[in-house]
Amino acid sequence: GLGTSGQLGDGTTVSKSSPVQIGTSSWTSVSAGFTHTAAIRADGGLFAWGLNSSGQMGDGTTVNKSSPVQIGTSSWSSVAAGQIHTAAIRTDGRLFTWGYNLNGALGDSTTIDKLQPLQVGTSGYTKIAAGAVDSTYAITNTGYMYAWGQNTAGQLGISDTINRSSPVQ
């Protein structure tokens, strides 16, 4: 696929027409955003690579990465790469977001980009998804679904078209 921003994770910015191996580790989960990728290794380590213009890598910078960079030292269970933001759940059920936030996709009640993981809410999250139009969706361990971010086409499913910068059930 397209590799011009390093989103293939093979250490280059060259597009490839056939699969390439990423690292030597055992991976359990991967999510491809618009021009960045995030993945979880078998040991729970979270890694990201590719375009980092709004901090979607979560490493505290806005420098593109063409190889996997570890995000924190925590153990992660789920990750979702959106268009220009990333969301992930730790094994303790806490949800974190980072990257582009103009439309509230990070769920922290602001519209300011974040370069490192920022906790959203308390805990109890089990599933996460990041939309291609700067929106985020999460399911709790009690089965409730929350959504936040861009809602100009009603994609949050909350019967209006107003962007939300914090989770709405």
Secondary structure blueprint with pairings:
Elements: E1 27-32, E2 36-41, E3 46-50, E4 65-70, E5 76-81, E6 85-90, E7 95-99, E8 114-120, E9 125-130, E10 135-140, E11 145-149, E12 164-168
Antiparallel strand pairs: 1-2, 2-3, 3-4, 5-6, 6-7, 7-8, 9-10, 10-11, 11-12
Q: What overall geometry do the principal axes of the alpha carbons give?
A: globular
Radius of gyration: 15 Å
Strand content: 35-45%
Structural class: mainly beta
Largest pleated sheet: 4 strands, antiparallel
List SSEs in N-to-C order: EEEEEEEEEEEE
Distance between the termini: 36 Å
Mean pLDDT figure = 95
DSSP helix count?
A: 0
Taking pLDDT < 50 over at least 5 consecutive residues as the criterion, the unreliable ranges are none
What percent of residues adopt helix (DSSP H or I)? under 10%
The number of E-state strands comes to 12
How are the strands of the biggest sheet laid out side by side? 1-2-3-4
Structure description:
With 169 residues, this protein is mainly beta. The protein contains no helices and 12 strands. The strands form 3 sheets. Strands 1-2-3-4 form a 4-stranded antiparallel sheet, with no helix packed on it. A hairpin with a 4-residue loop joins strand 9 and strand 10. The N and C termini lie far apart (36 Å). The mean pLDDT is 95.
Question: What is this entry, summarized?
Answer:
This protein is mainly β and 169 residues long. The chain has strands at 27-32, 36-41, 46-50, 65-70, 76-81, 85-90, 95-99, 114-120, 125-130, 135-140, 145-149, 164-168.
Which tags fit this structure?
mainly beta; four-stranded antiparallel beta sheet; globular
